[in-house]
């Protein structure tokens, strides 16, 4: 599966647009890691626990989006975007979306 954040794929011709595909997840870290991040907020530095959580969430949302595209028979997903929103303190939703297409 080709996944790009552009409207076209260099060297490929899009023959059919299959529609919007998306994947999403809401993730939170357990209380121990949340406490560690809280301490880092006081003293400064990267909040590695949250960086890790968001990386895992993006990967999961991308996988869901690809599975939806595969179910439609897509060869690629173009114009891929990610959005993040806080659901509550310590929890975030990641949404991955794009357009599933067939290639020549």
Task: Walk me through the topology.
Elements: E1 2-3, E2 14-28, H1 31-43, H2 48-71, E3 76-88, E4 91-103
Parallel strand pairs: 1-3
Antiparallel strand pairs: 2-4, 3-4
State the separation between the terminal residues, measured CA to CA: 14 Å
State the total count of DSSP E strands.
4
Can you tell me the CATH topology? Translation Initiation Factor IF3
Walk across the major sheet and give the strand order: 1-3-4-2
Structural class by SSE content:
alpha+beta
Q: Helicity level, as a percent range?
A: 25-40%
How many domains?
Answer: 1
Estimate what percentage of residues fall within beta strands.
35-45%
What is the overall shape? elongated
Kindly describe this structure.
With 104 residues, the protein is an alpha+beta fold. It has a single domain, classed as 2-Layer Sandwich (Translation Initiation Factor IF3), CATH 3.30.110. Helix content is 36%, strand content 41%. The protein contains two helices and four strands. The chain has helices at 31-43, 48-71; strands at residues 2-3, 14-28, 76-88, 91-103. Strands 1-3-4-2 form a four-stranded mixed beta sheet. A hairpin with a 2-residue loop joins β3 and β4 (91-103). The radius of gyration is 17 Å and the shape is elongated. The mean pLDDT is 87.
Give short descriptive properties of this protein.
alpha+beta; 4 strands; 36% helix; Translation Initiation Factor IF3; 41% strand; 104 residues; single chain
Task: Describe, in short, the structure shown.
This protein is of the alpha+beta class and 104 residues long. It has helices at residues 31-43, 48-71; strands spanning 2-3, 14-28, 76-88, 91-103. The protein has one domain: Hypothetical protein apc22750. Chain B (Translation Initiation Factor IF3).
């Amino acid at each position: 599966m080709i996944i790009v954040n552009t409207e076209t794929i260099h060297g490929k011709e899009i023959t059919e647009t299959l529609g919007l595909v998306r994947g999403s997840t809401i993730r939170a870290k357990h209380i121990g890691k949340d406490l560690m991040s809280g301490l880092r907020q006081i003293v400064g530095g990267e909040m590695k626990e949250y960086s890790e959580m968001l990386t895992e969430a993006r990967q999961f949302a991308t996988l869901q989006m690809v599975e939806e595209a595969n179910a439609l028979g897509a060869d690629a997903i173009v114009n891929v975007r990610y959005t993040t929103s806080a659901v509550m303190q310590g929890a975030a939703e990641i949404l991955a979306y794009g357009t599933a297409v067939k290639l020549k």
